[in-house]
Amino acid sequence: MVADTAHTDHEAIIIGGGQAGLATAYYLRRAGVDFLILDNQLAPGGAWQQYWPTLTLFSTAGFSNLPGMMMPTYGQDEYPPADHVVDYFTRYEQRYDFPVERPVQVESVSWEDGVYTVSSAERSWTAPNVVSATGIWSAPHTPSYPGALTGTFWHAANYPGPATFRGTKVAVVGGGNSGAQIAAELSEVAEVIWYTRDTPKWMPEDIDGRDLFHRARQRARNIQRGGEDPGTGELGEIVMVPQVRRARDEGRLVPTPMFDSVDEVDADHLIWCTGFDPALGHLSAVLDGREPKQPGLYLVGYGDWTGPGSATILGVGPYAKATATEIAQSR
Ligand code: FAD
Q: Most CB atoms closer than 10 Å: which of 10, 76, 90, 236?
């Protein structure tokens, strides 16, 4: 079936204006493809606008660049906070003058005769290509446990920073980076019980985002050459950012085995740091699991399952480029 693309609104529509959407826009622009970005936020910055106020990157600015424009340095080569990233993405979007419509909440995507229709509650747009770059932040994952808590439930997705918890007793659940970082900073102002399913896997202290990017790149190259994905091996999971290292060394970050029922938790607050799912609800009609049913639909970012490192600022570049190249070559 040959698509009647002469009559579509654009050659490509990007859903999501975070780093994955912006990096794809950069390469589509370079390839001369006409595109539009639809984003449901009020302002540029993607999910970085919503991260908790004390969050910092796990690498320096020099290892957090989008294609074409460097992230400005921060302090004496320190790890920048989230608002530095928002500022950088805002300038990035302005510099390249990308066509972005916001706020637009894409509700659904359908496909017929080679043309995708992307719909919000108010209107629709058509294109032969759709890039979904909607990230994970809007789909927090909370496991189901029996029992009740007399205190308040939170998720890392709505964690407001430590001030709210000062002087209270807080259960932090999750042995990954967000669990470790939130437990570490709360342990400075509150009594923390840090629940983890497994023994936390600390990374060596000399490893930060820079090494993770190098490793992700090596894994991607290996896969590209037809080799097996060696995974992250014995590297560990928790990046030793200064606050986490301090809390662990001072004995404030001690794991407690996971509970079987919330009834066992004696705390004023419980914060689930149990990760996120990809925000793919708008694609239910055009995906089979996580696989596009038809050509012309691309998923960029999200997590390692779209490519090693693809969910990071620096790491998304090669995947954005490959997607834009494929779209340009399909014309
Ligand atoms: P997002 O930033 O979420 O952008 C997606 C955009 O699409 C958002 O604006 C969203 O609101 C919008 N959207 C979603 N659904 C729709 C819809 N239906 N219609 C329209 N718009 C929609 N990476 C690093 O490189 N360094 C780090 O230090 C680092 N730290 C991290 C710390 C945490 C706690 C987390 C969660 C992630 C971290 N990451 C880090 C990983 C990664 O950089 C972020 O997850 C990043 O936000 C992913 O970018 P994205 O463009 O894929 O998604």
A: 10
Q: Which atom of ligand 1 is nearest to the CA of 178?
A: 34
What is the model's pLDDT at position 145? 95
Classify residue 226 as left (phi > 0), alpha (psi -120 to 50) or beta: left
Contact 24, 140 (CB under 8 A): no
Q: How far is the CA of 21 from the centre of ligand 1 (A)?
A: 10
CA of 18 to the centre of ligand 1 (A): 6
> Is omega for the bond preceding 67 within 30 degrees of 0, making it cis?
no
Q: How far is the CA of 14 from the centre of ligand 1 (A)?
A: 14
Q: Which helix (H) or strand (E) holds 329?
A: helix 317-329
Domains of the chain: 12-139+276-329 (3.50.50.60), 152-202+238-272 (3.50.50.60)
More confident residue, 239 or 113: 113
Q: Which residues line ligand 1 (CB under 6 A)?
A: 15-21, 38-41, 46-48, 51, 55, 57-58, 64, 104-106, 133-135, 137-138, 178, 209, 279, 282, 301, 311-313
Of ligand 1's listed atoms, the one at least distance from the Cα of 58 is 28
Both tokens of residue 128?
A: 């032969």
- pTM across the whole model: 0.93
CA of 16, closest atom in ligand 1: 7
Give per-residue pLDDT as tens, 223-258. 777 776 656 555 567 888 889 999 999 999 999 999
Closest CA to 311 of 12, 58, 2, 33: 58
- How many residues comprise the chain? 331
Tokens of 168: 């209270």
Question: CA 154, CA 144: separation in Å to the nearest integer?
Answer: 14
Helix/strand/coil for 123: coil
